[in-house]
Automatic annotation (TrEMBL):
It is found in: Cytoplasm. This is DNA replication and repair protein RecF. ATP binds at G38, E39, N40, G41, A42, G43, K44, T45. GO terms for molecular function: ATP binding; single-stranded DNA binding. It comes from Microvirga alba. GO terms for cellular component: cytoplasm. InterPro entries: AAA+_ATPase, DNA-binding_RecF, DNA-binding_RecF_CS, P-loop_NTPase, RecF/RecN/SMC_N, RecF_2.
Length: 386
C-alpha cells in the first residue's frame, strides 16, 4: 500500500440472516481483494448490496428495505460485519425487525452492539464507493441518472448530503402542492420557497465543492497513457451558476426571487422547473476532448472506471479513510490489458475491494493476491486453485 494512503480497514467477517437469497451466511475473508464468482442469479450482487447498506441511502440497487428480506422468510433481515481497523475491531449491524400487524417495519443500526440513530453514523468507520452494470449507459442516459450518480459521490465525502437532498425533495413537493391547491396563498408560498432556497443552495454548493475537488485531483494525477482516460467535469444548471458567482446568502435571495417569479409557469407545468433538481453533470473524455456520450462504448466504460477510481482516491483524501470499493461484473467487458491495469489500480487504493463476475478466468491472475470465492444459491465457499 502506498505510504501516503489513508489508514485501511478490512471486512474480516460478513454475516447475513434472511437477506435476499441467503437464509444464513457467515463469510470470513482476509485479503484486500475479494472476488465473488458464480453463475448469474447465484447471489453475488446480493453480497455487495448487503455491504452497501452501511452507507446512508437504500444501497446499490436503490431498493426498498422490505424487498431485501428473503422470500419465504419472516419478513425481517440482518446484515452485520466485523471491521478490522488500525485502531481495533468494531462490529456494525443493520436490518429490519419483523413487522407487527399493521406496523411498518423500521430499520435498525448498531455499532458494537449499541443502537445508533441512522446509517449516517457508519461514516465514522467506513466509506463506500461502487460501480454497477446499470451505470454503463450513464453518459447516454437522462440527466436524472447523472444527478443521482453525482449525489452518491457527494454522499461518500459528506454523510449529511443525503438528508439535505431528501429535505429539498420534500420541500419541492410541498411547493408544488401549494401551487396546485392554494396558488393565491402568498404567505405559505413565501415560507416554503425560503426553505427551498436554503436547501437548494446548500445542495448545489456541496455538489460544486465535490466536483471542484474531484476535477482538481484528476488534473493532479492524470496520465495521458492510462488504460482509463481522465475525465473533465462541470455542472450545468441555473442554480449551479448562482453558487459559482454569488455568496451563499445572495444566491439564496436570488433563488427565492426566481421561485417567486416562476410561480405561474411552475403551476402550469405541475413542477418546479428551476433548481438543483434540474442540474446535469457534464463529463468529457479528457484525452480526446469530446463529450463522453459521443465516445465509443468501450471508451465510455473505461472513462467511467477512471472516474470511479478518482472518486475513491478523493474519498480517501477527504475522509481520512481508505474506502471500500464494490464492483459488480466489473471485468466482463475489459480486454486483458485493461483488466490487469484495473487490478493494479485497485490494489493501489489501499482499501478493500469486493468484485463479482460470472467467469472464473477473469480473476485468474489474482490467484494468491485475492480471496477467490465461489457463489452458488445461498452458499459461498473458497474456489479451488486454478
Amino acid at each position: 500500500m502506498p505510504s501516503n494512503s489513508p489508514p485501511a480497514s478490512r471486512i474480516a467477517r460478513l454475516m447475513l440472516q434472511d437477506f435476499r437469497t441467503y437464509a444464513s451466511l457467515d463469510l470470513a475473508v482476509s485479503r484486500p481483494l475479494v472476488a465473488l464468482v458464480g453463475e448469474n442469479g447465484a447471489g453475488k450482487t446480493n453480497v455487495l448490496e448487503a455491504i452497501s447498506l452501511f452507507m446512508p441511502g437504500r444501497g446499490l440497487r436503490r431498493a426498498e428495505l422490505a424487498e431485501m428480506a428473503r422470500n419465504g422468510g419472516p419478513g425481517s433481515f440482518a446484515v452485520s460485519l466485523t471491521l478490522d481497523t488500525p485502531y481495533g475491531e468494531h462490529r456494525l449491524g443493520t436490518g429490519i425487525e419483523q413487522p407487527g400487524e399493521g406496523v411498518r417495519s423500521s430499520r435498525t443500526c448498531r455499532i458494537d452492539g449499541a443502537s445508533v440513530s441512522s446509517p449516517t453514523v457508519f461514516a465514522e468507520f467506513l466509506r463506500l464507493v461502487w460501480l454497477t452494470p446499470d451505470l454503463d449507459a450513464l453518459f447516454r442516459g437522462p440527466a436524472g441518472d447523472r444527478r443521482r450518480f453525482l449525489d452518491r459521490f457527494v454522499l461518500a465525502v459528506d454523510a449529511e448530503h443525503g438528508a439535505r437532498v431528501n429535505a429539498l425533495e420534500r420541500a419541492l413537493r410541498s411547493r408544488n402542492r401549494i401551487l396546485e391547491e392554494s396558488p393565491d396563498n402568498r404567505s405559505w408560498l413565501d415560507a416554503i420557497e425560503r426553505e427551498v432556497a436554503e436547501l437548494g443552495i446548500a445542495v448545489a454548493a456541496a455538489r460544486r465543492e465535490t466536483v471542484a475537488r474531484l476535477a482538481a485531483l484528476i488534473l493532479e494525477t492524470r496520465e495521458e497513457a492510462s488504460a482509463f482516460p481522465f475525465a473533465t467535469l462541470s455542472l450545468d444548471g441555473e442554480i449551479d451558476h448562482l453558487v459559482t458567482t454569488l455568496p451563499a446568502v445572495d444566491a439564496e435571495d436570488r433563488y427565492r426571487a426566481i421561485l417567486r417569479e416562476s410561480r405561474p409557469r411552475d403551476r402550469a407545468a405541475g413542477r418546479t422547473l428551476i433548481g438543483p433538481q434540474a442540474t446535469d453533470l457534464l463529463v468529457r473524455h479528457g484525452p480526446k476532448d469530446i463529450p463522453a456520450n459521443t465516445a465509443s462504448t468501450g471508451e465510455q466504460k473505461a472513462l467511467l472506471i477512471g472516474l470511479v477510481l478518482a472518486h475513491a482516491r478523493l474519498v480517501g483524501r477527504m475522509s481520512g479513510l481508505a474506502p471500500f470499493v464494490l464492483l459488480d461484473e466489473i471485468a466482463a467487458h475489459l480486454d486483458p490489458r485493461r483488466r490487469t491495469a484495473l487490478f493494479d489500480a485497485l490494489e493501489s487504493l489501499g482499501g478493500q475491494v469486493w468484485m463479482t463476475g460470472a467467469d472464473p478466468s477473469l480473476f485468474a491472475e489474482l490467484q494468491g493476491r485475492a480471496d477467490l470465492l465461489h457463489v452458488t444459491a445461498g452458499h459461498i465457499e473458497p474456489s479451488n486453485p486454478a
